[in-house]
């Protein structure tokens, strides 16, 4: 599995799993509307600052630390249009 933090701008992914070592992490993601099985795309990932993602038409900014705890499957396909 690949970590969300390892993807580049424009890459498309499907959320596979979360890091379970941090008890409340899963619930924090659910509060943001991020769930297993969702498709998304990296909108903006810079050297510093948050990672902006598009999850099924919703733009969400998450911290770099959070992006390292989300496991995804990368897809080789053109940009998604929700």
Low-confidence stretches: none
Q: Do you know the CATH topology?
A: SH3 type barrels
Number of strands: 6
Q: How many structural domains in the coordinates?
A: 1
State the name of the first-level CATH class.
Answer: Mainly Beta
Fraction of residues in β-strands: 35-45%
Largest sheet: 6 strands, antiparallel
CA radius of gyration is 12 Å
In sequence order, what are the helices and strands, one letter per element? EEHEEEHE
Fraction of residues in helix: 10-25%
CATH superfamily: Ferrous iron transport protein A (FeoA)
- Give the strand order, joined by hyphens, for the main sheet: 1-6-2-3-4-5
Structural class: mainly beta
What spatial form do the alpha-carbon principal axes imply?
globular
CATH architecture label: Roll
Tally of helical segments: 2
Average pLDDT score:
89
Separation, N- and C-terminal Cα atoms: 25 Å
Domain Ferrous iron transporter FeoA-like: 2-74
Protein name: Ferrous iron transport protein A
GO molecular function, one term: transition metal ion binding
Keywords: Iron
Characterization of the model:
This protein has 82 residues and is mainly beta. It has a single domain, classed as Ferrous iron transport protein A (FeoA) (SH3 type barrels). The protein contains two helices and six strands, in the order ββαβββαβ. The chain has helices spanning 25-31, 64-67, and strands at residues 2-3, 12-18, 39-45, 51-55, 58-62, 70-75. It has a six-stranded antiparallel sheet. A hairpin with a 5-residue loop joins strand 3 and strand 4. The protein is globular, with a radius of gyration of 12 Å. The N and C termini lie far apart (25 Å).
């Amino acid at each position: 599995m690949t970590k969300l933090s390892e993807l580049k701008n424009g890459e498309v992914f499907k959320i596979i799993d979360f890091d379970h070592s941090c008890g409340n992490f899963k619930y924090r993601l659910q509060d943001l509307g991020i769930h297993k099985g969702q498709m998304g795309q990296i909108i903006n990932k810079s050297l510093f600052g948050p990672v902006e993602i598009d999850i099924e038409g919703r733009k969400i900014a998450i911290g770099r630390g959070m992006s390292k705890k989300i496991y995804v499957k990368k897809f080789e396909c053109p940009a998604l249009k929700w």
